Amino acid sequence: MAYGLDRKEDELPKTVLVFDFGDRTFDLSILKINKGLFEVLSTGGDNHLGGIEFDNRLTCYLLKEFRSMYRNEIKFDNITNGLKRRLKSKSEQIKKSLSKENEFNDILSSLYEDKDLEIKITRSKFEELNEDIFKRIITLMEETLKKANLKKDEIDEIIMVGGSTNIPKIQDIVQEFFHGKKLNNSINPYETVASGAAIFTSTLSENKSIKKKKNKK
């Protein structure tokens, strides 16, 4: 909803796709915006798919690599919580780094029984690990368009919101899906949530005020 706060009432109607990929959920909304008014044409997404899933995939990959490196030297009967936390923290760092760089290199010293984990992972490997997620995103976009009875070229603007939209592969598949249409990455996700909540609260207040006036009559 915050997207329309600064829209001029004399602007032409627009059909907008809001692509919101946060830490915990992935949400899609198709809105018709006309003279400051919003009409929700369809919604979609996955409440169980968020940016944290990329971290989990990387954590599993790093643990597998570590086991492979020292399988003849260490018995991995009990993986400590401390080890998991270090891998999870490093995985988030890798994800963010690979959004800017093509390769990530580092060493996790004394990860387990004084053994180090040498990390070398490329962006292409990251994309390979998450290939099914990217395919899932495409399927969900198709379903959301279908529910709105719209074709791809009927979407006028695509608003990208949420930290996971910084992942280059996500930018690429969305842009490719919509035949090269430019993506709008200028919306601040925190301002969007705050402004949306303010509008919702204001709407509730107005409705209550109207009801009170009717009851007095």
The value of Rg in angstroms is 22 Å
CA-CA gap between termini:
33 Å
Number of alpha- plus pi-helical segments: 6
Mean pLDDT: 84
This entry's quaternary arrangement is single chain
What spatial form do the alpha-carbon principal axes imply?
A: elongated
The H-level CATH homologous superfamily of the largest domain, spelled out, is: ATPase, nucleotide binding domain
Helical coverage, percent range: 40-55%
Which CATH top level class of the largest domain fits?
Alpha Beta
Determine the CATH topology of the largest domain: Nucleotidyltransferase, domain 5
Structural class based on helices, strands and sheet pairing = alpha+beta
**Major sheet: order of its strands?**
3-2-1-6
Strand fraction equals: 15-25%
Poorly predicted ranges (pLDDT <50, ≥5 residues)?
Answer: 193-215
Summed up, the domain count is 2
How would you spell out the order of helices and strands?
EEEHHEEHHEHH
Can you describe what's shown?
- This protein is of the alpha+beta class and 217 residues long.
- The protein has two domains: 131 residues, Nucleotidyltransferase, domain 5 (2-Layer Sandwich), CATH 3.30.420.40; 78 residues, Actin, Chain A, domain 4, CATH 3.90.640.
- The protein has six helices and six strands; from the N terminus they run E-E-E-H-H-E-E-H-H-E-H-H.
- Helix 1 packs across helix 2.
- The relative contact order is 0.16.
- The C terminus is likely disordered.
- One of its GO terms (molecular function) is ATP binding.
- InterPro entries: ATPase_NBD, Heat_shock_70_CS, Hsp_70_fam.
- Keywords: ATP-binding, Nucleotide-binding.
- It comes from Neocallimastix californiae.
- This is Hsp70 protein.
